[in-house]
Specification:
The chain has about 220 residues and is α+β, with helices and mostly antiparallel strands. Helix content is about 25%, strand content about 35%. Strands 4, 5, 6, 7, 8, 9, 10, 11 and 12 form a nine-stranded mixed beta sheet that branches.
Length: about 220
């Protein structure tokens, strides 16, 4: 039996070569910091299909974001900061997360404020949550954002998060909000694999995968020795 090799589809081919549901209506069901919506789609056979979702955005902005995403455009809602110190340690946090009723391991993260660029958001969130700031190299901050923001929970929300890798150093005490309970700790990159094996605290998927990537790089380096 022969298998066809298929290359990675482009965004245009995703939109144009396959029949797909078309957004028909966005109805807000409940209000609050998190809002619930009922989305109505016209299916390829002409029938209508309803789907429940949530967003922080109001109905007008949410619909605009959905239409933008459907056309291939994207704007990050939040940032996740993978901070690396001069001692090759990763800056992580334990934060009490109310939806979990539990502490959770994560990288520092937060919402991008209106009109805020990526560098300003990165510096603000680092300072507020951890007390860390940029470790300047040749007098300049050094950071690298992944080419594309990733979505947090595609079955529930349109929220997208831009992951940024940055060189950082301790500069001050953290400045969390009164409702934020955050413990800052560092993890030597060489210990990432051991940490994943031994950790028993709930952990965010994004954090888990990034740590696994560092752990794999360390394992590969050992095998080459």
């Amino acid at each position: 039996m022969q298998h066809e090799t298929i290359g990675a589809p482009t965004l245009a081919s995703n939109r144009e070569s396959r029949p797909q549901p078309i957004l028909h209506d966005v109805k807000q069901v409940s209000d609050g910091w998190i809002k619930k919506y009922e989305l109505t789609y016209a299916m390829p056979d002409g029938s209508l299909y309803s789907y429940e979702s949530v967003s922080r955005k109001n109905a007008e902005t949410y619909r605009r974001e959905l239409e933008r995403a459907g056309s291939g455009e994207q704007q990050a809602d939040a940032i996740c900061i993978v901070g690396r110190t001069p001692d090759n340690e990763l800056v992580l946090i334990r934060e009490f997360r109310y939806p979990l009723n539990s502490w959770c391991i994560a990288f520092p993260a937060g919402l991008i404020e209106a009109g805020e660029d990526l560098e300003d958001c990165l510096e603000r969130e680092l300072r507020e949550e951890t007390g860390y700031g940029f470790h300047l190299i040749d007098g300049k901050p050094k950071f690298h954002a992944l080419p594309q923001a990733g979505y947090s929970s595609t079955g529930l929300s349109e929220e997208s998060v831009q992951v940024v890798f940055a060189f950082v150093e301790k500069q001050s005490d953290p400045e969390p909000e009164p409702s934020e309970f955050i413990e800052v700790f560092t993890l030597p990159i060489a210990d990432a694999a051991r940490f994943l094996e031994e950790n028993e605290t709930p952990i965010g998927t994004r954090c888990q995968l990034i740590l696994e990537s560092f752990a794999r790089d360390a394992r590969d380096a050992l095998q080459r020795c």
